[in-house]
Design a protein that fits this description.
With about 900 residues, the chain is α+β, with helices and mostly antiparallel strands. About 50% of the residues lie in helices and about 15% in strands. Strands 14, 15, 16, 17, 18, 19, 20 and 21 form an eight-stranded mixed β-sheet that branches. A hairpin with a 7-residue loop joins strand 19 and strand 20.
Length: about 900
């Protein structure tokens, strides 16, 4: 019926003719003349056109034919108004594309389920707020390997239990006989990891529990599909290949499926290695047999019918039993109190573990709200354009209604035109989003290395874009469609083609422009707040000089060197001395941490002061040249020098805040303290106090930090800093050459500057500031178009009135002010409405701001001034055109 419609129509016409001929023949047989018989047959048969329409409707494709007609008519209408169409499509493409791009990132970070079997049945013990390693008692975030095995055996709510290291081992290794080492991200997992997730191997096999039943005896690995393609060129003989990490050679036993990236969003391991081999994987952190060496996350798959509440109750009961049952459990009063307070929450794991979620969930939600407001402004703009167009089409629509067209039919046709416009804009928006989401991903990554997130288009994104497109069409198309068909037919037809009085009809258009102004004010003030917050963060006193400092990582652990290796300290000193001697290098030093790189935390015991086990001191192990390199000023005492050796008095330099808050009154220099409890062997004597320095992030309050020389506390770290003058590229090359001249195979990675590292710590703030500014300016631009379009339309519809005014003696300046006055009024009303909305919105983002308290008058004032300037520019051209109206030409309309 759909494809051969003309044939059915011909057959219907033939059938109608047959009925008429039969009736005519009967009338002739009754004695009528042929002409009279024909007329009587037609009268008796009825309206053939109406019969045809009923038959078409019975066939069931009338709706489709109407849609095709409306679509064709809408496309012709778009081509007849190219200026309106281009403005509308650009507005929609920017609005829908921005929404799709932000949603693609939001979906990848927060909403998308892991590519595993029944992800909703998977839960995590704890909240994954911690990562690293700890020897604390009754921890509910990190767990030891023996604890995992006990939980696996004693729980009654999980069908499967798995464990994985809370951090990736970023090591360097070689493949087969390749000499050059390459960076590899290794994830240590239990043998039950893949089976618990329900993931099967793409090639070979997955890890099994047999690979994880005895320490150091299972050098096997499963590699990711991406690494197999990137490093091994999709070699079909991959199961015969080997990987060497440190001094251990691992056999590749399988390749994971292409869609599987692990359980941590934003991290994509290159290989998975059983936990039984944790000591063989650099940097060899954790202990396979220690009951209290906690560095693991534990996952569980709920049994059918078991609720999260039931599982939580059972897990906490087993948690208490395991810790009390360990033979080396120290159940003193302090630990019993910790155990009594401990509660293990179960976190749904359907969307995986994600550090990105913690950092970017609120910024992405704010940006999603921002782009939604931009789309609303675009819709208001297009609705205004369609209102103006519908006024120009008033006579056409009136003629159609006068000829019998139902109002509902015309509304449907107008909505179809809006839908075509929206779908075309949506298609352009998708094309824009495919580019924009890559840019967004680079902004989120905050560096040269892009976070491994899949932000490509998928079914969910296409459905989201389609839904946004349809809703957009309804928003900007419904009101103009209903308004355009609410006509007084006689008045409209009598008005002919001349201008009509549209003052009453322009009220809705003015309302839409006011709403655009209000929303633009909200966005511009928000952009101003985020920009000023970013400026405040950039101007924070870090306590160190971030300019002209080279930063790089060296990986001693991948060469088999550990903390107890006597070669390490000697290599540190040799590298520091050789680099410091280079022309243009002022100072150089190794350190355990630099800014925003995590920390080694722990409590301390100061004689004569109460012990606070909850207080975490940030410990940093550094070289003698560290303070000169970072330019952290000395406040009192001395810094490390050649006197501080492995056999001399153990010493430490502490921060001002630590000196003021954790030591008795007076100078702490000369006082000793223990790292840990009073029986700890790590007793340090304070020899100096340095200025407080930012350690974790720029917004933090002063931290308690102590610095320990690496000559007295061995630590296989890889942070190296060098203060330089001159060109970064040449200094960087020379420093790397010096390091390789000392140890040729030493891997060097993450070569950057300290300034860039500090900048990466505020990636989310910079993301919000940059994008909110862009979208705020876009909103103002759309509002500018809206004001211009409205006033141009008003001027064109009031040409005769302006001509009469000028004919009666009105000056050109008076006519210009007539237009500008209306613009000023609209903007003033929009600002008056937008200010309280802005003040309410400021409270929602106050916790994302730094150095700003309450409403920021500067941001508000700047946004108001900008809107007034834009409105003046947008209104100038219509006002100028109005002032140049020729009275004789205008009066001819009368």
């Amino acid at each position: 019926m759909l494809l051969r419609r003309s044939k059915f129509r011909d057959e219907l016409d033939e059938e109608l003719r047959l009925h008429l001929d039969l009736r005519q023949q009967r009338n002739i047989e009754a004695g009528l003349s042929p002409e009279a018989a024909r007329r009587a047959a037609y009268r008796r048969f009825g309206n053939t056109a109406r019969i045809k329409e009923k038959s078409y409707m019975t066939w069931g494709w009338e709706w489709f034919e109407s849609f095709v007609q409306d679509t064709a008519y809408g496309l012709r209408g778009m081509l007849r108004s190219p200026a309106l169409t281009i403005v509308a499509l650009l507005s929609l493409a920017l609005g829908i594309g921005a929404n799709t791009a932000i949603f693609s990132l939001l979906d990848a970070v927060m909403l998308r389920s892991l590519p595993i079997k029944d992800p909703r049945q998977l839960v995590l013990l704890g909240t994954a707020d911690w990562n690293g390693t700890s020897d604390g008692f009754a921890l509910t975030e990190l767990y030891s390997y023996p604890f995992y095995r006990q939980m696996q055996q004693k729980n009654s709510v999980f069908s499967d239990v798995a464990a994985l290291s809370s951090f990736e081992n970023q090591a360097h290794g070689t493949v087969d006989d390749r000499h050059e080492a390459e960076p590899m991200n290794a994830q240590l997992v239990s043998g039950t990891y893949f089976s618990t997730l329900g993931v099967h191997a793409h090639i070979g096999r997955i890890l099994t529990d047999a690979d994880d039943n005895s320490e150091g005896n299972h050098p096997v690995a499963v590699i990711s599909d991406a690494w197999w393609k990137r490093s091994l060129a999709s070699d079909p003989g991959v199961l015969d290949r080997k990987i060497k990490l440190g001094s251990t050679t691992f056999n590749i036993v399988g390749v994971a499926p292409p869609e599987f990236f692990g359980t941590q969003v934003g991290a994509a391991p290159d290989l998975w290695i059983p936990l039984s081999m944790m000591k063989a994987v650099p940097p060899a952190w954790g202990d396979y047999k220690d009951d209290f060496s906690a560095s693991l996350y534990i996952l569980g798959r709920l049994k059918p019918g078991v609720t999260v509440n039931q599982a939580t109750t059972n897990v906490n009961l087993v948690f208490q039993q395991i810790l009390r049952g360990f033979p080396d459990s120290k159940l003193n009063q302090e630990n019993l109190q910790k155990l009594a307070k401990a509660h293990v929450p179960l976190t749904p794991m359907a969307t995986g573990i994600s550090r990105l979620r913690e950092h970017f969930s609120k910024p992405l939600q704010v940006l999603m709200a921002v782009v939604a407001l931009v789309l609303l402004i675009a819709c208001a703009n297009i609705a205004n354009l369609l209102l103006a167009r519908s006024t120009a089409r008033a006579r056409e629509l009136a003629v159609r209604q006068a000829l019998g067209a139902r109002r509902s039919r015309i509304i449907r046709q107008l909505l179809t035109e809006s839908l075509i416009l929206a779908l075309t804009g949506g298609a352009l928006g998708i094309a824009l989003a495919t580019v924009a989401n890559r840019i967004l991903l680079r902004l989120v990554s905050g560096g040269e290395e892009t976070i491994p997130l899949d932000v490509s288009l998928n079914l969910r994104l296409l459905l989201f874009t389609f839904a946004v497109t349809v809703v957009t069409a309804l928003i900007f198309g419904t009101i103009p469609a209903f308004r355009a068909t609410r006509l007084q037919l006689t008045d409209t037809l009598n008005a002919g083609r001349g201008p009509q009085n549209t003052d009453g009809k322009s009220l809705l258009a003015r309302t839409l422009v006011i709403s655009q102004i209000s929303l633009s004010l909200v966005l511009m003030v928000g952009a101003g707040l985020f920009l000023r917050s970013l400026i405040n963060l950039d101007n924070v006193d870090t306590g160190f000089n971030k300019e002209n400092v080279l930063r790089l990582d060296v990986d001693f652990a991948s060469l088999g060197m550990n903390d107890s290796d006597p070669r390490v300290a000697a290599l540190y000193q040799q590298i520091e001395q050789r680099v410091a001697a280079l022309p243009g290098v002022q100072a150089a030093s190794f350190s355990a941490f630099t800014f925003h790189e995590g920390s080694w935390n722990g409590f301390i015991t100061v004689p004569g002061m109460p012990v606070n086990h909850e207080l975490d001191i940030k410990h940093n192990i550094v070289g003698n040249g560290y303070f000169a390199t970072m330019q952290i000023p000395l406040v009192a005492g001395r810094l490390f020098d050649s006197r501080d050796t492995a056999t001399s008095q153990r010493v430490a330099v502490i921060s001002e805040h630590m000196a003021k808050t954790l030591f008795p009154a007076g100078s702490p220099i000369g006082h000793s303290y223990h790292i840990g409890g009073p029986s700890s062997p790590w007793e340090e004597q304070v020899i100096g106090i340095v200025k407080d320095a930012k350690f974790g992030d720029l917004a933090e309050e002063p931290e308690d930090i102590d610095y320990i020389p690496y000559t007295q506390r061995s630590y296989t770290f890889g942070d190296f800093e060098a203060r330089y003058t001159g060109d970064f590229t040449s200094i960087s090359t020379e420093v790397q050459q010096v390091i390789h001249s000392i140890y040729r195979d030493l891997p060097i990675t993450h070569v950057t500057t300290l300034d860039e590292q500090v900048a990466r710590s505020i990636t989310n703030q910079r993301l919000v500031a940059q994008l909110s500014t862009f979208f705020g300016l876009l909103a103002v631009f759309l509002s500018c178009i809206g004001i211009y379009g409205l006033m141009s339309y008003v001027v064109s519809r009031r040409t005769n009135e302006i001509g009469i005014r000028m004919a009666l003696g009105a000056a050109r300046s008076n006519v210009s002010w007539l237009v500008m006055r209306e613009i000023v009024l609209l903007v003033a009303i929009g600002i008056a409405i937008g200010i309280p909305v802005t003040l309410a919105g400021d409270r929602l983002v106050s916790n994302m701001l730094f150095g700003l308290h309450g409403t920021d008058a500067i941001s508000l004032s700047a946004a108001v001034v900008l809107l007034l300037l834009v409105a003046a520019v947008a209104g100038y051209f219509p006002a100028r055109r109005a002032s140049r109206v020729d009275p004789m030409e205008a009066l001819r309309y009368e």
